Amino acid sequence: MPELKTEVDPAEVGLDADRLRRLDHYLASYVDDGRLPGWQLAVTRRGKVAHLAEYGHRDVENGLPADGDTIYRAWSMTKPVTSVAAMTLVEDGTIGLQDPVSRYIPAFENVRVYQRGPATRPVTTPAANPIRVQHLLSHTSGLTYGFHRAHPVDEIYTANGFEWATPPGLDLAACCEQWASFPLLFEPGTAWNYGVSSDVLGRVIEVASGRSLDEFFAERVLGPLGMTDTAFHVPQEKADRLAAFYTADPATGKATRADHMGAGALHKPACLSGSAGLVTTLADYHRFTQMLLGEGTLDGERILGPRTVRHMRRNHLPNGKDLHTVGRPVFSEMPTAGVGFGLGFAVIEDPAAAGVPAGPGEYAWHSAAGTIFWVDPAEELTALFFTQLMPSSAHPLHSRLRQLVNQALVD
């Protein structure tokens, strides 16, 4: 298990220690008044951990602290890992960004696009263009999630057992067969919607590589980076390290234990989800962010080339638009104005429009379970915050984190 330690005095890398304590104080208040069970935080600059903090519990009821041993459900922070894994195959020449997904999953050969009508009798037309690998990476495929509950196509997903999980017993290949039979929200490449694109991308990885997704991750990303606690489930010998799962009570905002939503992490899933399947630790995911900051390399291990990482963090939305213009308003707390989307990450294009004190080019992602990371190449800064509370949008944590980290930059 990699250990995360403070490596440098904040002042040596342009951070003000007193200002960083504002961040700790703010986050501690969420635990003290019951809105969060506990949390961990790491702020790194120029490749050195300058601020490391933790507070509260990973399991309130059993008095277990939120500490370096804690394993968290990464949920949607699985998506950037899947994206990086896919890009290793692009660099191999095994797949191409413009390849039709049907080359690897034939069921996607004849997808149709929703036009009108209820979920029970939708009117559809054949897609004019294929879903391509790049559309999966940029969430411009037209695929969706059932839990959005904002469109008849969302209802089709839910009616078929796809909401916050996949139907019992279906593996990734079988899930892709079903998703290919559902209508798309829009013509591929014309808009942005958060959905199962990264899951389908995971299946592309499996077919193209001839390896299961867990094996490919271990060989090409997790193993080389030393992410020894990151996997698709928590084995029995580590079960006591898994954070309990909490939801925000709609009436009070207090964290309420919800074991039924988090128990799946203790069992190997039938469907290896490239969207939301991983469990990880702060130390493990920190290594992943340092690889990104290092433009594909960490501790002598090169996962991707620097030009590939730079390409991933460009805005790949249609006509260079932002999420506000071409995206659907969904659950995310993340701003949409002034924010583009790359190949696996949201990318800040216009900080003023986004309303965040960040520099252009900062890229990030988060999860509905409360975890978030971002990488600021210009400032050589990364930040990671881990807790286990759903939904992440119950409190303005993620936006406040950016404010409080960036106000501590003083050089």
From TrEMBL:
EC number(s) reported in the record: 3.-.-.-
Organism of provenance: Streptomyces cinerochromogenes
Keyword annotations: Hydrolase
Listed InterPro entries: Beta-lactam-related, Beta-lactam/transpept-like, Diverse_Enzym_Activities
Lineage: Bacteria, Bacillati, Actinomycetota, Actinomycetes, Kitasatosporales
Protein name: Serine hydrolase domain-containing protein
Pfam families named among the record's database cross-references: Beta-lactamase (PF00144)
GO molecular function: hydrolase activity
EC class of the enzyme, as a word: hydrolase
Domain Beta-lactamase-related: 24-405
